[in-house]
Amino acid sequence: MLYLMVSVLCSVSVGVLLKHWGSRGMDAAQLVTWNYLAAAGLAWGVLQPSPAVLTAATTPWPLLLGLGLALPLVFLLMARSLATAGIVRTDAAQRLSLLISLAAAFWLFGEVANAWKLAGLGVGLVAIGCLLARPTARSVWADRGGRAWPWLLATWAGYGLIDIALKQVASSGTATTAALAVSFSLAFVLMLGLQLLRQARRRTRIDARQLGAGLLLGGLNFANILTYIRAHQAMSESPATVFAGMNIGVVALGTLAGVLLFGERTSRLNQAGLLLAISAIVLIALGS
Question: Which sequence ranges are marked TM in the entry (predicted)?
């Protein structure tokens, strides 16, 4: 249970820090770049995947390259969602991306649907609709900085597509740890190229403060992944508990963080969406 609690805390901390630093004018693209430097280094050093994946004929390089591009892109979309929609709705939308991977499991991977999962899918879709609704004008968090729903929807869809890609990589026989290490490395290389181009055009300035902040984000991101894996290993007899605990924990703690740290307010429709999101997670876990 300790691993699960740490994983939830690390996941929410990433959103809290990204939002805080964004409000202070720090460059999200730089933060994401150095995040993947730390995540890639830790993935290779701690998980120690076999380097044979780099030369194996079965390695799905198009998928890994796609992940290398999608991971930082979705991270940037999430940063924008945090700035406009807040942590409460962004964390809930991110966690409900499991609906996309669940639907893909039925239609693409041949998983048998059952009543619990279908009910969870239906409830979750209603929850997404409630979360996308704009808070009332009286709310201090009424989509500051522009419309929030496109960024919420993009974050939801992006994380769902990443999960599908990871499942396709796993079905090819490539170890998940190796896929993560390679994808993180590719993401860093791509983002570093972008930062060097921006630096050359004088659109940004790389500095030590943003480097340190990005490395911290990467450490938290990797700790989230590592402790989630350890939680599944430690509670191998009850994977549904780990699944539900992780997703519900992030939604609950993200809500507390948004309200207590940033004064976010939500409409009654948004609040109903949060409750429906938790209900959907429970239903899907019961069907697992």
Answer: 6-22, 34-54, 60-80, 92-109, 115-136, 148-166, 178-197, 209-229, 241-262, 269-287
For residue 231, how far is the Cα from the chain centroid?
Answer: 18
Distant-in-sequence, close-in-space partners of 76: CB < 8 Å, separation ≥ 6: 28, 29, 32
- Under the banding of pLDDT at 50, 70 and 90, the label for residue 136 is low
Residue among 96, 220, 95, 84 at smallest CA distance from 146: 84
Report yes or no: 100 and 157 within 8 Å, Cβ to Cβ: yes
User: Quick one: pLDDT band at residue 142, thresholds 50, 70, 90?
Assistant: very low
DSSP string, 142-211: S-TTS--HHHHHHHHHHHHHHHHHHHHHHHTT--HHHHHHHHHHHHHHHHHHHHHHHHHTTS----HHHH
What is the tens place of the pLDDT at every residue in 207-238?
A: 889 999 999 999 999 999 999 999 988 888 87
CA distance 271 to 71: 29
Q: How many structural domains compose the chain? A: 1
CA distance 14 to 164: 22
Residue type, 254: G
**Spatial separation of the C-alpha atoms in residues 189 and 194, rounded to whole Å:** 9
- Domain span at residue 207 reads 2-286
